[in-house]
Amino acid sequence: MSARSFKIGSRDIGVDHAPFIIAEMSGNHNQSLDRALEIVEAAAKTGAHALKLQTYTADTMTIDAPQAEFSIRDKKSLWNDEKLYDLYKKAYTPWEWHEPIMKHAAKFGMLCFSTPFDDTAVDFLEDLKVPCHKIASFENTDLNLIRKVAKTGKPMIMSTGMASIAELDESVRAAREAGARDIVLLKCTSTYPATPENTNLRTIPHLRDLFGCEVGLSDHTMGVGASVAAVAFGATVIEKHFTLRRADGGVDSTFSMEPEEMAALVVETERARLALGGIAYGCTAAERPSLQFRRSIYVVKDIAAGEVLTRENIRCIRPGLGLAPKHFDLVLGRPARKAAVRGTPLSWDLV
User: Fold this and answer.
1) 123 vs 83, 95, 120, 266, CA distance in Å?
2) Are 330 and 271 contained in the same domain?
3) Closest to 138 in 3D by CA, of 59, 61, 226
4) Is it the case that residue 87 has pLDDT exceeding 90?
5) DSSP 246
6) Residue of 103, 128, 131 lying closest to 40 (CA atoms)
7) Beta-carbon neighbour count of residue 97 at 10 Å?
8) Which pLDDT score, from 0 to 100, does residue 2 have?
């Protein structure tokens, strides 16, 4: 099975089209609808094609319990010592904000969709007529949720995260059996932020070959380097967290892009795609005028008819209108057929 192009809303997804750039708001609204709307406008101005939300509540994600496993215990984590329930309560996007956010995105010509985390979120997003759904990396083994999303018939984007090949196979099979036709798998490293050395972009074409679907990158690294490189490996979708300014704080701000960076991402990923081209040698049509700047054999000192060609009166110089340099040794020591002035390109009729 091979990947095929399809549409998410009005946007074409596939290797023959500009990479589909998703700005992930996540919890960077900092519990302010005004800030959320400002993020939408800022994302649209960067040229990003879509804004993504997350649709859950603290109660649909976990329970408020005192046991240690309901808190994050990792000194390397941005959220060390946070209770899961409290973190999700702080990070979630109120459901009543979804419609105004989506309408604001549409006003600027940008798609808006979300990551549902349970069945109620899928139903809610379907009522809002989202163009597609996203399965988060930590939910990619929740086959019931995947089937629920697949039954909508909408395109499905799924982060691979920590999933093994066997787990991804189960997930993709479940999605297709439930009716999903258009699937994008995003290579994803589930650390926040992620480091380049843990990104393993060579997995991207392998995912395409294994599952016959479109592929991309959910990029938690800093900067645009990993995303641009991902396009070289065939990524057609790039997702990056987005905020107005990292200095504003927020649950995901540390590894989120600022507007200037997102604008650069949009431009550079498309440049990377265009630069791939095909396998090509020789002179392209665009290069043809530059042929004149190659070296060739020129008369560099006036020559009389019958005079022997030497290193003193001919040289290989620019431009390239004379005989090719490979003929230099062949013409050395031969008499000139006729006189030639300095600056004459050497040709066979002169030898």
Assistant:
1) 28, 12, 5, 32
2) no
3) 61
4) no
5) G
6) 103
7) 17
8) 62
Question: Of 231, 246, 276, which residue is a domain's last?
Answer: 276
Q: Distances from the Cα of 253 to the Cαs of 16, 28, 164, 295, 348, in angstroms?
A: 33, 6, 29, 55, 70
Q: For residue 187, give the H/E element and its range.
A: strand 183-188
Residue pair 120/148 in contact by the 8 Å Cβ criterion: no
Q: How confident is the prediction for the chain on average, in pLDDT?
A: 95
* pLDDT given for residue 73 in this prediction: 76
The tokens describing 190, both together, are 């589930």
Nearest partner of 57 among 89, 32, 27, 99, judged by Cα: 89
pLDDT > 70 in the chain, percent: 97
Q: For residue 68, what pLDDT is reported?
A: 87
Q: Which domain holds residue 25?
A: 7-56+92-276
Average pLDDT (108-117) is 98
Pair of tokens at residue 25: 């708001």
Q: Can you tell me the distance from the alpha carbon of 340 to that of 272, in angstroms, rounded to the nearest whole number?
A: 49
* 8 A C-beta contact, residue 316 and residue 297: yes
Asked if 116 and 139 count as a contact pair (C-beta separation under 8 A), the reply is no
Kindly give, in sequence order, each residue whose CB lies less than 8 Å from that of residue 281, ignoring residues fewer than 6 positions away.
Answer: none
The set of residues, in sequence order, having a beta carbon less than 8 Å from that of 169 and lying 6+ positions away, is 211
The answer to whether residue 293 is domain-embedded is: yes
Task: Round to whole Å and give the CA distance between 332 and 314.
Answer: 8
In a domain, 62, yes or no: no
Q: 302 with 269, same domain? A: no
Say which DSSP state 9 is in. T
Q: What's the one-letter identity of residue 201?
A: L
Q: Residue 45 — pLDDT band, cuts 50, 70, 90? A: very high
Residue 293 sits in a domain of what CATH number? Answer: 3.90.1210.10
CA distance 348 to 351: 5
**74 band by pLDDT with thresholds 50, 70 and 90:** confident
